C-alpha cells in the first residue's frame, strides 16, 4: 500500500498548484515586450527620421530627377517634377574639356590640401607635446584659424597677398629679392628657374592649397594631440634607454600609434576638401586655374541658369567621391582592422 502511495505523492508534489506551465505564455509575453520596445524605439527616432527624410533624402532625389532633365531657371516653375528625361546633361558634362580640367584641379586641391593640413597638424602636435609654460595658451591659439569666420580670414589673406600694398610682397621684394610683386591670387603661373630650367608653378592654386592647409590644420592638431597623450610613455623610455634616436623613436613607436588616427583624418579631410566651395570662391572666385567642380556647379546655376547641368555635375562629383572612398575602404580598411 505504502509502495503505491509514494509515487502518487511525489507526482502530486512536483505539479504546481495552478496546473502545468504552458510554454506559449512566456514566449507570447516575450513577443509582446519586444513589440512594445520596438514601438517605443520607433517613436523616439521618428523625429530624426523625418528630419533626415526632409532635409537629406528628398533633396537628393530631387537632384537626381533634375539631372536627367533639360531645365533652366526660366522654365523651372512650369516644368513639373517629372519632365522629359534625357541623358543630354551628362553627355554635355562628360564631353566638356572644362569638366575634366576642373576635376583634375579638384583632385590636386583635395590631395595636397589634405596632406598639408595633416602634416602641419602633426608637426604642431609634436611640437606642443612636452609641457612648458603657457602651453595651454599656445594650444588655444592654434585653434584660431579653424574657428575664425571664413569671410574674415579670406579678407585678411587677400589683403596680405595684394600685389600693390600686401605685406607679403612688401617683405618679399625687400628681403627675399623678388624682382617684382607676385599676384598670388590672380596669377595662373609663375616662371621659376630651377638649376637653369624654367618651370611654371601654379601660383593661385598653390596659394589656395596653402590657405586650406592653414585653415584646416587645427582639426588634425586636435585629433593627433589627443592620440599622442594616449601613447604609453613607457615604450619611449625603454627605447631611449636602448639608445634609440629621436627619429627612430618617432618612426618605430610614435608614428605606428598615430597611423589609425591619420587614416581617419585623411578620409574626413579629403571628403570636406573635395566638396569645399567657400574658401576658393571667396579668395579667387574660381579664376586663375582654381575652379574646382563645386565652384563650376555654382557658376552653372547662377551665371548660366542651367539647373539640369548643375545637377548633373553635382551627381558626377558625388560619384567620383564615392568611388575614391570605396577604393579606400577596399584597400585600407582591412589593414587598419588587422593593425
What does this structure look like?
- With 339 residues, this protein is mostly helical.
- It is 72% helix and 4% strand.
- It contains 16 helices and two strands.
- Strands 1-2 form a two-stranded antiparallel sheet.
- Strand 1 and strand 2 form a beta hairpin.
- Helix 4 packs across helix 15, helix 5 packs antiparallel against helix 12 and helix 10 crosses helix 12.
- The termini are far apart.
Query: Could you say which overall geometry the principal axes of the C-alpha atoms support?
Result: flat
Low-pLDDT parts are 1-18
Beginning-to-end CA distance, first to last residue? 76 Å
Largest β sheet strand count, sense and barrel closure: 2 strands, antiparallel
Give the spatial strand order of the biggest sheet.
1-2
Arithmetic mean of pLDDT = 82
Structural class: mainly alpha
Task: Give a quick summary of the entry.
The chain contains 16 helices and 2 strands.
List its traits.
339 residues; mainly alpha; two-stranded antiparallel ribbon; 4% strand; disordered N terminus
Secondary structure elements and their pairing?
Layout (H helix, E strand, L loop, with lengths): L1 H13 L8 H45 L8 H4 L8 H7 L2 H31 L7 H8 L1 H4 L2 H11 L6 H9 L13 E6 L2 E6 H27 L3 H9 L4 H29 L3 H6 L9 H10 L4 H25 L1 H6 L1
Antiparallel strand pairs: 1-2
Helix pairs in contact: 2-15, 4-15, 5-10, 5-12, 10-12, 11-12, 14-15
